[in-house]
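step 4 of 6: structure.
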Amino acid sequence: DGGITQSPKYLFRKEGQNVTLSCEQNLNHDAMYWYRQDPGQGLRLIYYSQIVNDFQKGDIAEGYSVSREKKESFPLTVTSAQKNPTAFYLCASSIAGQGTGELFFGEGSRLTVL
Amino acid sequence: AQSVSQHNHHVILSEAASLELGCNYSYGGTVNLFWYVQYPGQHLQLLLKYFSGDPLVKGIKGFEAEFIKSKFSFNLRKPSVQWSDTAEYFCAVNAGSSASKIIFGSGTRLSIRP
């Protein structure tokens, strides 16, 4: 079935460690996104990519990094520079371009920093 | 910068009551507007969307939304809610110089009393 796969579903990390969250899609979508979901704050955009080898910062990119080497993959690294990394992270994809924008979401990854 | 405001953080209704959830956005140009829903334990999914044309759009499960350009609003409505509508609802906007950048509101939690 077509869809978006995020892994791991749950992740624990010690302070000072980097961690990478995986996001893979087989929908042949050009655009991919990473959002962070915190209670009462909705979804905040971390990074997005409209095409392979290109990505843009969202509203809260500090302390995060991404890569887009393949169309189907958009991994997110939460670095030790991220001050409050404990959160629920959602990956999404869509067909890029004006007039589209419908997002398809993965199940999410919950990161807890101990 | 574009932003999306959802003023109702938590709405509690009885079954069969009418629903209206507010959504306002800040952007002066052409926008695409969305409502997403997150049922407990499930993925975020699209409820309805507005790209152009008739400002009254109908979505799944009896929901509808009206785009009022002069008020920068896109309120979600349902004439008679059911217990199964208990969920979190997010308004989103796709606008600006990057057509792929999609910004979400903070969400409204809807609780329906049986």
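step 5 of 6: annotate
 - Chain A has a mean pLDDT of 91.
 - Chain A touches chain B at residues 31, 33, 35, 40-45, 48, 50, 56, 58-59, 90, 92, 94, 96-103, 105-107 (CB under 8 Å).
step 6 of 6: archive
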